[in-house]
Target: Rab GDP dissociation inhibitor
Amino acid sequence: VYSTARSLITMNEDYDVIIMGTGMKECILSGLLSVSGKKVLHVDRNDYYGGEGASLNLNQLYRKFASQLTPDEQKLGLSKYYCADLCPKFIMACGNLVKMLLCTKVTRYLEFKSVSGSYVYKDDCIHKVPATPAEALASNLMGFMQKRRFKNFLQFVSQYDQADPNSYQGRNAAKCSTAELYEYWKLDENTQTFVGHSIALHTNDDYLNEAALDTIEKIQLYAYSVSRYGNSPFIYPIYGLGGLPEGFSRLAAIHGGTFMLNRPVQEVLYDANGQVRGISSNGEEARAKIVIGDPSYFLTAGKVVKTGKVARWLFILDHPIDGTSGADSAQIIIPFKHTGRKHDIYISVVSHAHGVAAQGKYLAMISSVCETSDPRNELSFAVRILGVTLTDFFFESDMFSPKSDGLSDKVFIPKSFDPTSHFQQDAVDVVEIYERITGTKLDLTISAEPGDLQDQ
Model:
């Protein structure tokens, strides 16, 4: 969401924490730290919120990605009805990200709506991801024998409790690998693929050799979120993710913090011992012993390393995706084993139902890690799933990770957004940074039921 406001407030004072960039991760950290009593200064070089995850209307999309063209509003609808997230990601309904939003009470400024369906691609078809024993038996993803085995596996997972050895059924998930657990339940490679990538939401197959407990807990969270919200485990804000940074700016003001847009950072300042002491901007200095910043603020400082590139391809459609039962919003995962690639391809679909497109229009974002010098061709496999499209915007983004954990110089840098269509890994990153900064565990025991989002 763009803002033309230019702050006249001076920043020449002391803060507990300075945050650079108004992306989702930076904003959540700002909220968590503000609520915990920290005095926070939050700046962004841009005149809009969101950074690489900004939300744009139709005119802004064309200016950014197709400046030589103008939108056909007869065909697409009015620009003002669009709020397209450049990094659209769905939120696990009962997961840690929702709990963090509830902890900060920023949800009082937002309204969420469930995502209509979660799907996986197999054999030229889109299938609903089965999350219950009943859905397992009805699914066309598996043959008869695998349906029975998968149903039994889900029943085992649903009652598994690490604190209760009686639930182990001979398999202690903390001491056996996921591959061993799959073998015990006789799940074939196809079933393993959609369980690991479409339910547990792993991004590669490294998890197969890791303790099965993590995968069991991920499946339990997915199934529980589906049980609370219905058709899928995901929710998404009405009007898109762009409302989150604005909500956090209001939250910061309540807790004595300051948000400043149009504030380029000339320099991150350090003391003689190499510890951060603040930033300089427009001839002023703001002082703090902790600085958080998205990777774009440290590209020339030697503090981040490029880990890859993400290709994203945004399409506007006038119809729902075939195979989704007319869903007005959906996540579709194409596991890499079905494409011959090394990485999964993700498709997120939202529409007028979430207030992000004109009536009757759908926004479909395809994303994945770039593996070759021709990422358009890499994603073309997924494009045919969309059917007829009205227009599209293709763009690439570098991915960066911090070189250090930030404990030595007190500069903490979140990782770039990955290509997934959900926030699961991003939530892990936020929790880890918060706990490194504060030295305390983030209390995520708060309830994250559907009513909790509405009550605030």
